[in-house]
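User: For my dataset I need records formatted as: sequence, then structure tokens, nothing else. Please produce one.
Assistant:
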Amino acid sequence: NIFNSSPASTSIRCTVSSCSCMRFKPARAKHRSCDRCGHGWVVHALEKLQAPPSPSCGPVEVALPGLVLDLSSLVLYGAQAVPVRLKILLDRLYSVLTPEQVGHILHTLGWSLGDYVRGYMLQFPGGTVLDRWVMVTPEEEPLVLRQFLRFGETRPIVELMTRQSPAAVNRPSDPELSRVADCNDTIHHFENFAGGLSLLLPFHFPSSTFQCLAPPTKVIEYIFYPRKRK
């Protein structure tokens, strides 16, 4: 569990232009911050994720469990709460995975199913009741939103979010989201997308024992399986 033991230092470099940090090392108390440079987990993890295709104009990628695990780490790793927009997008991606695959992702990132469905943790694994919650920061959220443009299941939702709240998601540091409207100048509504409101159907989890069916890729193997690095 990531709250009981810090992952080993990783060779994921910081992507902040002025930073020379070459290895992410989780801080003892704040796992989403690097103990070496002080920058957040998101700006490190993005170094291992390929740039997403242009919104609306490019091809989409298949939501493979390993890639969804990597993307989920941007939101859930070292966090105790999930911002609403990111929760909606994760729910949509998880709806196309099996319950076992989703269970493995949540367990790997230190979340129970109940906490994830609620959207926040009630207590630390040791039993201490939480009275404050770490989550994706407002500065990180546009960077994470951009990653959801890569999937057909979530790209239309990101585009709609961008149109509904441009000031919240369009920032100078994230020009890709700022160009979402350039690909299609017609305001979208969910009923106009393929599948309509089925895009927002929640995922369902029958009673089952969660097992690991898909190995982690890129980002996650660097955090939790450092010995596999060559």
